From TrEMBL:
Segments crossing the lipid bilayer: 12-32, 44-63, 70-87, 93-112, 117-136, 142-160, 167-187, 207-233, 245-267, 287-311, 318-335, 347-378
GO CC annotation: plasma membrane
Keywords: Membrane, Transmembrane, Transmembrane helix
Protein name as catalogued: Benzoate transporter
Pfam families for the chain: BenE
Naturally occurring in which organism (per UniProt): Terasakiella brassicae
Molecular function in Gene Ontology: benzoate transmembrane transporter activity
Cross-referenced InterPro entries: Benzoate_Transporter
Length: 386
């Protein structure tokens, strides 16, 4: 009897959570502090986000047998850093609930599915390639910082590809950890593991806070997170209904907002880490990677602030290298698909370069604008040309 999951699923899930925390946890802590949170409240934010991401990711992945990963809203956290100072914590929670209610409404009405039907595969894959490109580009700068560590990881990766091993990424990560430990780049002496105590904040509702905090949080979460997350699923040929996924992410926000779960959405970058050939040659079994990611998110949540210290113990070049190497295949496949049709090549390359720029406009990230410009080019120029 075949075991339902493998070591590569576990490793992919762990690496996805590792990348998620090391790349954005600092923003979440800063957002909590901007909202007047002390150490206990900040730990509660991590508890709520970890449990919300884990429960929803595990449930949706098993139900749909599709690698669905739910994440916190990284641009939402950046927005809160500037918009929460001076806002009463109870009003902030009311704004979180308002934003999550709007996200839930989007899922219930089904308009997200209708929107995604307008996006051709070439644009979805071009946006995905643009989102992930910076991770591939980070490998050589990481090598410049730590030649032995990154060199050993790249050599392991190339050897694994030469041998066509399904454990290429797990072995590369293991070699990175071993070399980092031998170089004394991993410091765990100050790590103090403590259980998180959730802190409930009674919401109160203020119209100006809804407009100034809740509505912008909804917009950036939908435009900069959920749309790219849906594009990642489409780019990997997972064509499940989008509206239930969006709806359940909103429900998680309604449940966990009083504890600091400010916003939940579909993951894009970390989800892509669980969808490549290195995870499993069989696309129908890759959902086990996101199940394991959900388990790790829940474990991270129950120890709250302590997990940030654990992930911070890994050296930055190692994190950058494992992320870049794990995503190389997805970047290559996405570019190949997006540029394969001459009739959509112009719109796809526009979408790709704008997304890859990483620029923001009106507080909304480049993936959204890349998709908008790509759609304008596709529907306004290339369809007429055809």
């Amino acid at each position: 009897m075949r075991f339902p999951f493998s070591f590569s699923h576990i490793t992919a899930g762990f690496v996805a959570v590792l990348i998620g925390y090391t790349s954005a946890a600092a923003l979440v802590f800063e957002a909590a502090r901007a909202g007047g949170a002390g150490p206990l409240e900040a730990g509660s934010w991590m508890w709520a986000l970890g449990l919300g991401m884990g429960i929803s990711g595990i449930g949706l992945s098993i139900y749909y047998k599709t690698p669905v990963m739910i994440a916190w809203s990284t641009p939402g956290a950046a927005l809160l850093i500037t918009s929460l100072p001076g806002v009463d914590p109870s009003h902030a929670v009311g704004a979180f609930l308002f934003s999550s209610a709007l996200i839930t409404l989007c899922g219930i009405t089904g308009w997200v599915d209708r929107l995604m039907a307008l996006i051709p595969t070439s644009l979805a894959t071009a946006m995905l390639a643009g989102v992930l490109l910076r991770f591939g580009l980070s490998i050589f700068p990481a090598f410049a910082q730590s030649q032995i560590l990154v060199g050993a990881m790249v050599a392991t990766y190339l050897l694994g590809k030469w041998r066509a091993s399904r454990y290429t990424i797990p072995l590369t990560f293991a070699v990175g950890v071993i070399v980092a430990v031998l170089q004394q780049d991993v410091i765990l002496s100050d790590l103090d593991v403590q259980w998180t105590i959730p802190v409930f904040t009674m919401p109160s509702f203020d119209l100006s806070t809804w407009i100034g905090v809740g509505l912008p949080l909804f917009i950036v979460t939908m435009a900069s997170q959920n749309l790219p997350g849906l594009a990642v699923l489409r780019a990997h040929n997972y064509h499940i209904a989008a509206s239930p996924l969006i709806g359940w992410s909103g429900v998680m926000g309604l449940i966990f907002a009083p504890f600091g779960g400010y916003a939940f959405n579909l993951a894009a970058i970390t989800a892509a880490l669980c969808m490549g050939d290195d995870v499993d040659k069989d696309p129908a079994r890759r959902y086990w990677a996101t199940v394991w990611a959900g388990i790790f998110y829940m474990l991270a949540g129950v120890v709250g602030v302590s997990v940030a210290g654990l992930f911070a113990a890994f050296p930055t070049p190692m994190i950058a290298t494992i992320a870049g190497l794990a995503l190389l295949g997805t970047i290559a496949n996405s570019l190949s698909v997006s540029l394969s049709e001459a009739s959509t090549r112009d719109s796809a390359i526009l979408c790709f370069v704008i997304t890859a720029s990483g620029a923001q406009f009106l507080t909304i990230g480049a993936p959204f604008w890349g998709l908008v410009v790509g759609l304008l080019a596709y529907h306004g120029i290339e369809k007429k040309r055809a």
